[in-house]
Amino acid sequence: MAANVEDYSEVLLSFGNAVEDQEFLNELQFRLWSELLQRPTRNLQFPGSQPVSFARQHLDALEREDYYVCEKSDGVRYLLYYTSPYGRPTAYLIDRNFNCRELSGLTCPGKMKGTIHTDTLLDGELIYERSSDGGAFHFLIFDALLISGANIMRHPLPRRLQYVQNDVVAPLKAKLQGDVGFAYPFKLDMKSMSKPYAIAQILELEIPQQQHGNDGLIFTPVSDPYISGTCERLLKWKPSELNSVDFKLIINAKASAGKTYELHVASRDSHRFFGYHRPDEKLDQFDQTVIECRYCPDEEEYHWEYIRNRLDKNSANYERVVDKIVESIKDNVTSQELIERIPAIRRAWKAREARGVKEVRGVREVKEIKEVREVRGVRDPRDNREVQDPRDNREV
């Protein structure tokens, strides 16, 4: 795996200016969550989708269903939100704590000449890409929730990515090439997605050549809608030595056995004790914060070892998530096992492709129907709802 970006983590987390006005932050969160995404106000939370750890059972899932695979960049996860509060166009980076950092005055040109994106929400990763001239920051987009105010979450992944490429990335690149006075604080581009039988190429050729950190693979279901919160079908594979858990560190200086370093996981509205970290005074500065730890199976007493402080999180992993991570660690699906499954995955993909049938939210969809959906004024036969054109909110 490529080297990590620990040296740049604080920089990646400090892009733009933190929105500290709590009333204004609440307004942004409410508008995004309740008005645009139409989610219940009582469950106000980070809108991004969260993967589950890859377990042995998921090897069969890669054969049964269509997935795209991409490398898992070791950067900082953000939602990039273009909007115009009080008529003032700007952009925000939204972290997993649902906090916002303003990129003052940053705009993105729309597909139609003279327009800019408003209420567009992109999902991606901010990374630092090294190069011979010193390197640069990149925002890699791997999904989208809103395009110009239209909710595209229910569309399958290829359609969502197509909207990003045609309506966001292409117009921005044209603007950057044609207007020397127009600048961006990072390079914005699509993340490379491949069919799942390209696993070996990604692991053996692409990742070793990358100039940014990597800690695994992400498998995204092709036909599913975008799911906010934990998505059981969005899969995160890591080599066993990189599998980790985010704990809340609580140092108990009054323990009868002396100072202890307790690791807690999230449970409902609080945290509960999970285990201990080896006593280490270097960790005293991280008391009451979230730290990332790797599993050490050979240790008799202390099974978790500190990796880094998670400045981008204010809550530990939930106990159910931790259970799945531990299951993934025990299953220990290796890269070689993934590669050995490639012939079967490819045969199954090609067989479905030859039949011309895809699974979309449990409904079998034939190629001819998919083509009909592109005709303006025709309803989506999958759910009898009108498909919205994100560019202008008209029916397509």
Question: How would you characterize this protein structure?
Answer:
- It is a single chain.
- The protein has 396 residues and is of the alpha+beta class.
- It has two domains: 8-239, DNA ligase/mRNA capping enzyme (D-amino Acid Aminotransferase, Chain A, domain 1); 242-331, OB fold (Dihydrolipoamide Acetyltransferase, E2P).
- Helices cover 25% and strands 31% of the residues.
- It contains nine helices and 19 strands.
- It has helices at 9-12, 22-36, 58-64, 157-178, 199-209, 319-331, 335-340, 342-355, 367-372, and strands at 17-18, 49-53, 67-73, 76-83, 90-94, 100-103, 120-129, 136-147, 150-151, 187-190, 214-221, 229-237, 244-252, 260-267, 270-277, 290-295, 304-309, 357-360, 363-366.
- It is globular.
- Keywords: GTP-binding, mRNA capping, mRNA processing, Nucleotide-binding, Nucleotidyltransferase, Nucleus, Transferase.
- It catalyses: a 5'-end diphospho-ribonucleoside in mRNA + GTP + H(+) = a 5'-end (5'-triphosphoguanosine)-ribonucleoside in mRNA + diphosphate.
- It comes from Paramicrosporidium saccamoebae.
- Its EC number is 2.7.7.50.
